[in-house]
From TrEMBL, chain A:
Keywords of the record: Membrane, Plasmid, Transmembrane, Transmembrane helix, Transport
PANTHER family per record: ABC TRANSPORTER PERMEASE PROTEIN, GLUCOSE IMPORT SYSTEM PERMEASE PROTEIN GLCU
Residue stretches making up the ABC transmembrane type-1 domain: 86-278
Positions of transmembrane segments: 19-40, 85-109, 121-142, 154-177, 198-220, 226-247, 259-283
Protein name: Carbohydrate ABC transporter permease
Species, as recorded: Paracoccus albicereus
Topology class, membrane: Multi-pass membrane protein
Location of the protein in the cell: Cell membrane
Entries under Gene3D superfamilies matching the protein: MetI-like
Automatic annotation (TrEMBL), chain B:
GO MF term (any one): ATP binding
Keywords on record: ATP-binding, Nucleotide-binding, Plasmid, Transport
Gene name tied to this protein: ugpC
Organism annotation: Paracoccus albicereus
Protein name (Swiss-Prot/TrEMBL): Sn-glycerol-3-phosphate ABC transporter ATP-binding protein UgpC
InterPro entries for the chain: AAA+_ATPase, ABC_transporter-like_ATP-bd, ABC_transporter-like_CS, ABC_transpr_MalK-like, ABC_transpr_MalK/UgpC-like, Mo/tungstate-bd_C_term_dom, NA-bd_OB-fold, OB_MalK-like
Lineage: Bacteria, Pseudomonadati, Pseudomonadota, Alphaproteobacteria, Rhodobacterales
Family: Belongs to the ABC transporter superfamily.
Length: 293, 372
């Protein structure tokens, strides 16, 4: 009797599980399909695309569109390919992510372990920056960049992203550190460690998971940003997203769809790379930060 | 001049005073336990000694130096926290030497001290492990080791045993006591567990609502409580507090109470000083420890004033080594602690023997002692 009951329970479990897997696989395919189309069309000669079936596999695979998108395609007025803009994006993203993450960690540390009068209000105000639409800050930001003499430059763009990123990075680190026992900080104080020493030796070594979350988040956001790039970057400082737009929107000559596909994939590769390398920490870190605090 | 001098210390948060004029002198080598219920201010006081909380009024001095405005790391104290507060990213060895490293003590000396303390606490085999790989008892040892290597003037313990299971707690309690006897260090120890306070301390400060209710040795606090709070907080089961009336009985003073059936019973008092006499014919609270009420055979033979009290037994609870017998006196449940073989039966009449030498009297209004 007992055995029969157990058997039924197992079978129900199996049916539910099958159902869950079917749904999951369906959605995975749903999301992977566009990427699949981009990949197969980026390695087709243009004639194969224009002559008909977008879904067909390439008859005559070629990497010429990739090479073209990277180094010879017409971007705006010059035929430089995406290469210089890719470099611009890297030069913008790396410092912007590093600085906003570092400041977020420091803010989180202060807001949880060095509490002061009005700290929750201050934190609340910082959270506004997470929810204010980008468009609202465009004009004030342009004015400030002008005052600072950073208009149109790469450092200016970095500053914009840092300022915009601090809200999120502070939120992440504050919630993560809120669950971190304050007794450890007190103990370190008695041991004779100062403000930065406690941060460096006690807090940072255990901040791995949330740092990864913050880096992925910031990297993805800043890399994919178009509005700030198109508004604040001069011709020489334009990031990848703006260049990709220029490539696809260029009104002269034939639309080279295969090159466009290749360029779009190139633009998405770095975020994909970061996610694949650090993704498993992402989920873990999100959990760690959200359970308590 | 005492070693640790807590001199009229007060603490306020805004307009709310949470500690009121605390005045405690601790001699070198003393084991002072601050005990009280949650929110009584004992941890706040400890944090003030450590320098983790500001002092609103008064002075705290350690080893002759006023430390009110001295940074925690420069007070020459070490603290053991309730959660142990071990740095999760460092090994046990690094945890224990971190303080010395911060104080710029050279590596050879750090290693020598680490080896000494590790040997003392028998944790030599754990030095390369991370705190996450240790059991609760081992973490507790490491936390103590981290305090010991500092060689401080004063050790501060903040409920260090409350995260351990019951058996381990008793073992570690003995271990802390041994360690204190061996090293002769000055310790201030915070706990809410009155058994810990009684067993470990050389002196106890019983605290409630921000006041020190009584400061004294375990025996003083237990046998001679200053007020009803101390009487009921210390001891388990706690002291029986029975409403009574002081009457004159054949020229001596007695406490009149009623038994289970409402008949008056008179218990002659051992102490009849002016304070008691002043309460003649007035209501008082008679306090008797459970172990002062026994059967005739279990009574203390050296007591000078044993009174027999016949009453109905309500409940008996055998607890292995003792039997707890509950009866009703003056309408209140009253517990007697008897030897395991005592012959009290629930529902039957029993002759209780009350050791009135141990009885104490309180004023029901002020809750203070009247027979001291």
């Amino acid at each position: 009797m007992a055995i029969a009951t157990q058997d039924t329970a197992v079978r129900t479990g199996r049916i539910t599980r099958t159902f869950i897997y079917v749904v999951l696989i369906f959605f995975a395919l749903f999301y992977l399909l566009p990427f699949f189309i981009m990949v197969i069309n980026s390695v087709k000669p243009l004639s194969e695309i224009t002559s008909g079936n977008m879904l067909a596999l390439p008859q005559d695979p070629t990497f010429a569109p990739w090479a073209s998108a990277w180094s010879t395609a017409q971007i705006g007025v010059e035929a430089t390919g995406l290469k210089p803009y890719f470099l611009n994006s890297i030069l913008m993203v790396v410092p912007a992510v590093a600085i906003s993450t570092a400041l977020g960690a420091l803010n989180g540390y202060i807001l949880t372990k060095w509490r002061f009068r009005g700290d929750t209000i201050l934190f609340g105000l910082m959270l506004f920056s997470c929810f204010i639409p980008f468009q609202i800050v465009l004009i004030p930001m342009a004015r400030i960049l002008g005052e600072l003499g950073l208009s149109g430059s790469l450092p200016g763009l970095i500053l914009v992203h840092v300022v915009y990123g601090i809200g999120f990075s502070t939120l992440y680190f504050r919630n993560y550190y809120a669950a971190f026992p304050t007794e450890l900080v007190k103990s370190a104080m008695i041991d004779g460690a100062g403000f930065f020493r406690i941060f460096w030796r006690i807090m940072l070594p255990v901040s791995g998971p949330i740092a990864v979350v913050c880096i992925i988040w910031q990297f993805t956001n800043i890399w994919n940003d178009f509005l700030f790039g198109v508004s604040f970057a001069g011709l020489s400082a334009q990031p990848m997203t703006v260049a990709l737009n220029n490539l696809v929107q260029s009104s002269t000559g034939v639309k080279e769809y295969n090159v466009h596909f290749a360029g779009a994939i190139l633009a998405a590769l770095p975020t994909l790379f970061v996610y694949i390398v650090a993704g498993r920490y992402f989920v873990r870190g999100l959990m760690a930060g959200s359970v308590k605090g | 001049m005492s070693f640790l001098d807590i001199d009229n210390v007060t603490k306020s948060y805004g307009n709310v005073e949470v500690l009121h004029r605390v005045d405690i002198d601790v001699q070198e080598g003393e084991f002072l336990v601050l005990v009280g219920p949650s929110g009584c201010g004992k941890s706040t006081l400890l944090n003030m000694i450590a320098g983790l909380e500001n002092i609103t009024g008064g002075n705290i001095s350690i080893n002759g130096r006023v430390v009110n405005d001295v940074h925690p790391s420069k007070r020459n104290i070490a603290m053991v926290f309730q959660s142990y507060a071990l740095y999760p990213n460092m090994t046990v060895g690094q945890n224990m030497t971190f303080g010395m490293e911060m104080h710029g003590i050279p590596k050879p000396e750090r290693d020598r001290k680490l080896a000494d303390v590790a040997k003392l606490l028998q944790i030599e085999n754990l030095l390369d492990r991370k705190p996450g790989q240790l059991s609760g008892g081992q973490r507790q040892r490491v936390a103590m080791g981290r305090a010991l290597v500092r060689d401080p003037d004063v050790f501060l313990f903040d409920e260090p045993l409350s995260n351990l299971d019951a058996k381990l707690r008793v073992d570690m309690r003995t271990e802390i006591k041994k360690l204190h006897q061996k090293l002769g260090t000055t310790i201030v120890y915070v706990t809410h567990d009155q058994i810990e306070a009684l067993t470990l301390s050389t002196r106890i400060a019983v605290m409630n609502k921000g006041y020190v209710q009584q400061l004294g040795t375990a025996k003083e606090v237990y046998d001679d409580p200053a007020n009803m709070f101390v009487a009921s907080f210390m001891g388990s089961p706690s002291m029986n507090l029975i409403p009574a009336k002081i009457v004159e009985d054949n020229g001596a003073l007695a406490a009149e109470i009623t038994d289970a059936s409402g008949r008056p019973v008179r218990l002659r008092l051992s102490r009849d000083g002016a304070g008691v006499r002043a309460h003649l014919e007035r209501r008082v609270i008679l306090g008797i420890r459970p172990e002062a009420i026994t059967d005739a055979e279990g009574a203390d033979r050296r007591a000078s004033n044993l009174q027999v009290l016949g009453n109905d037994v309500a409940v008996t609870e055998p607890a292995g080594s003792d039997t707890f017998v509950t009866m009703t006196l003056s309408g209140k449940d009253c517990i007697a602690r008897m030897r395991a073989d005592a012959e009290a039966r629930a529902g039957a009449h029993f002759d209780f023997t009350v050791n009135m030498d141990k009885a104490v009297l309180f004023d029901p209004e002020t809750e203070e002692r009247i027979d001291r």
